[in-house]
Each structure stands twice: as structure tokens, then as C-alpha cells.
Write a sequence for this structure.
């Protein structure tokens, strides 16, 4: 093999014989620029699914649907909680219903109509009432509590004022009584002194002082 | 040793000054104790016990009218007063109390701070003693002890009381006069 030749580098110079033989053998395997031929038996690509036809619209719609369901559940829970808050105060507002039921049960005769009416009486009417009541007329429990506190404070203040007035009036009466007694005794002493001694000691007490 | 004795001498003199000040302050207190007379309440047919301290006086003063002339006078009179205490016992019969019962009051009034300005004594009509305590040129307290065969009255007024105005009050506020003098005169007749 001639190693000084540049044939292997840039195909210049004298080629070696063995290299030529190798080129001839391996040359059959060199790249042939020709189009790909696919056999007819082989099926290229996947089958089209049903959902594939909707494209990206389906996941968007599913997301929106899930959001709507979640929103619906949340609103339902909120309404349920609100009902549970309002229900006790409205039960207090309708105290005659149980009495009606009791009177009906005491008679012992229950016609179907009566049974129906008693069922109506037992039915949770407050819930219907709550639904029928417009939102702006619903009682705000916090405001109600605040108002009741304010009323209680005002009542306490009025009671305190009345007690103060009573105490003041009693103090005034006591003061007048004390002054009246003191004045009476003083006048008695003054008159006695005047009758025994012409000098008016009481009158001149400032001079003495 | 010398400095120790000087210090103890100073301390002793300081204590003496404090004790003297406290004693003189209590001696100058125009409030007299009348609780010893409470034993008479059991025998009395009628008892009057009025205790108006400074706070109650303030409340009572606020309830006095500024429009009514009589109440205006009272307001002027009680202005500056710190207390009025009255204790009176009326008995159905005579000899229900003795001088010993009144000694607790008289002993307090014998204090040098009190000056007796009136002393009327009669076996039939009883006696009236009026004492005043001065603070400078102003009256700082009044004590009155009226003893009748069937009645004992002690009045104690704390503060600058005007005796002239006080003696003018009887018969006002719609309250009839006690007519003590008239009843005595009738009894004489």
C-alpha cells in the first residue's frame, strides 16, 4: 500500500490497487437517490377516532362544563347554609302551627283532608317563606343582633337615668328636711336668746367670726 | 456617735411635727360623730337620720331649681357646703334619755376648735347649744344640740354656712313652720 499518495485524502495521485478493489466491492452499497417505495400491504397512519373530529373544542367545552358544575354546587351550598341560618328565627315567628297539630291529634279523628292539612302544617314552611321572601326583605341577623344590643343599652341607660333622678330627688328632699330642721332649731335658739338677751348673737355671728 | 445622735434628734423632731399636724388636723375636723346616739332609736317614737355627704350634696344641688326663688336661696346657702348630718329622736314620754347619753356629743364639742355662740337652757323647755368652728375668718362648721324633755336633735353642717340665711329658710318650700316658739307660748299660757 502506498501511504505517500493523497488519493485517500482528495483522490489525487496514484490510487492503490487494494483500495480500488475495496471501492469496487463497497461501491454497490453506496446511496442511490430514489423515492421511497411503500409496499401495498403496509397501511400507513392511525384510524380516525370519534373525538378526534372535534379538535380542541371538546376539552374547552369540558372545562367550561366542569366550571359550571362547580359554580352550581358552590351556589347550592351557599343557599343551604343561608337557609339554615334563617330557619330558627322564622320558626319562632310561627308558633301557632304546633298548637294546631296538637289540637288535631287530641280530637282523634283525622280525615284525609285534615291529614293533608296537618302534613302541610308539619311541612317546613319557613323554607318556602324564605324562598318567597324577596332578598331585600330578608332579616340580617348581624344587624338584628346589633339593634337588640343597642336597644338593651338604651334601656339600661334609661334605667340608670331614672335611678339617678330618683336618687337626686331623694337627696333634695333629705337636704330640704335637714335644712328645715336646722333652721327651726336655730330660730328657736335665736328667739330664746333675744327674749333673754337683747344682743342678737346669731345675727352678729359674722362679726364674732 | 455625735452624728448619730444628731440624726436621731432630727428624726424625733420630724415625728413630733407629723404627730402634731395630724392631731391638730383631726381637732379641726368639723364632723362630729353621732353614732353613739343610735341606742336612743329603740326608745324613740320617731327618728330622723339625715346624712348628706359631699357627693350627695352635689346631686341634691343639681336637682334644685334655678327658677324657683326659694330653691335658689337654698342653692346659694348650700353652695360650698361639704355635708349636712341631722339626727333627731322624738319620744312619747319624758325621761327616756339622760345627760350621759349626750355626753359623747358634748365631749366632742368641748374641743377648743369649737366656739359655743348660743347656749339656752331651761328645765321646762330644754336647751339649745349652737357651736361654730372657724377656719380663718370663715365658718367651717356648725354643730347644734337641741335637747327637749321629749326630743333630742343634733345638727352638724360641714362647710362655710351662713347662719342668717339658714335661719330665713323655715316656712319655705311649701313646708309649714314648725312653730316651736308658738307651741311653747301656748304651753306657757
Amino acid at each position: 500500500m502506498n501511504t505517500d499518495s493523497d488519493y485517500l485524502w482528495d483522490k489525487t495521485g496514484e490510487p492503490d490497487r487494494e483500495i480500488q478493489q475495496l471501492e469496487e466491492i463497497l461501491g454497490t452499497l453506496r446511496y442511490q437517490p430514489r423515492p421511497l417505495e411503500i409496499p401495498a400491504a403496509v397501511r400507513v397512519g392511525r384510524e380516525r377516532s370519534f373525538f378526534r373530529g372535534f379538535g380542541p373544542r371538546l376539552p374547552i367545552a369540558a372545562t367550561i362544563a366542569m366550571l359550571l358544575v362547580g359554580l352550581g354546587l358552590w351556589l347550592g351550598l351557599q343557599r343551604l347554609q343561608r337557609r339554615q341560618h334563617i330557619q330558627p328565627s322564622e320558626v319562632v315567628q310561627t308558633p301557632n302551627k304546633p298548637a294546631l297539630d296538637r289540637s288535631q291529634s287530641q280530637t282523634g279523628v283525622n280525615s284525609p283532608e285534615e291529614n293533608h292539612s296537618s302534613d302541610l302544617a308539619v311541612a317546613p314552611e319557613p323554607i318556602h317563606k324564605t324562598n318567597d321572601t324577596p332578598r331585600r326583605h330578608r332579616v340580617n341577623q348581624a344587624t338584628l343582633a346589633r339593634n337588640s344590643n343597642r336597644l338593651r343599652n338604651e334601656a339600661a341607660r334609661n334605667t340608670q337615668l331614672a335611678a339617678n333622678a330618683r336618687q337626686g330627688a331623694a337627696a333634695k328632699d333629705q337636704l330640704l328636711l335637714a335644712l328645715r330642721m336646722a333652721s327651726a332649731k336655730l330660730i328657736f335658739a335665736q328667739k330664746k336668746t333675744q327674749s333673754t338677751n337683747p344682743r342678737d348673737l346669731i345675727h352678729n355671728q359674722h362679726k364674732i367670726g | 456617735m455625735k452624728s448619730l445622735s444628731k440624726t436621731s434628734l432630727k428624726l424625733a423632731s420630724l415625728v413630733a411635727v407629723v404627730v402634731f399636724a395630724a392631731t391638730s388636723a383631726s381637732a379641726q375636723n368639723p364632723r362630729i360623730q353621732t353614732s353613739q346616739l343610735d341606742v336612743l332609736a329603740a326608745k324613740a317614737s320617731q327618728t330622723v337620720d339625715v346624712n348628706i355627704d359631699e357627693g350627695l350634696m352635689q346631686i341634691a344641688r343639681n336637682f334644685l331649681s334655678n327658677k324657683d326663688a326659694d330653691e335658689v336661696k337654698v342653692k346659694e346657702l348650700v353652695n360650698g357646703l361639704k355635708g349636712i348630718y341631722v339626727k333627731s329622736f322624738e319620744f312619747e314620754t319624758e325621761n327616756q334619755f339622760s345627760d350621759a347619753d349626750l355626753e359623747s356629743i358634748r365631749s366632742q364639742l368641748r374641743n377648743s376648735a369649737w366656739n359655743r355662740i348660743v347656749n339656752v337652757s331651761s328645765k321646762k323647755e330644754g336647751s339649745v347649744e349652737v357651736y361654730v368652728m372657724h377656719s380663718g375668718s370663715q365658718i367651717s362648721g356648725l354643730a347644734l344640740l337641741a335637747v327637749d324633755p321629749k326630743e333630742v336633735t343634733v345638727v352638724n353642717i360641714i362647710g362655710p354656712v351662713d347662719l342668717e340665711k339658714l335661719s330665713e329658710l323655715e316656712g319655705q318650700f311649701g313646708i309649714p313652720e314648725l312653730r316651736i316658739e308658738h307651741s311653747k307660748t301656748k304651753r306657757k299660757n
Summary: DSSP finds six helices and six strands in chain B. Confidence is low (pLDDT under 50) at residues 173-189 of chain B. The two ends of chain B are 82 Å apart (CA to CA).
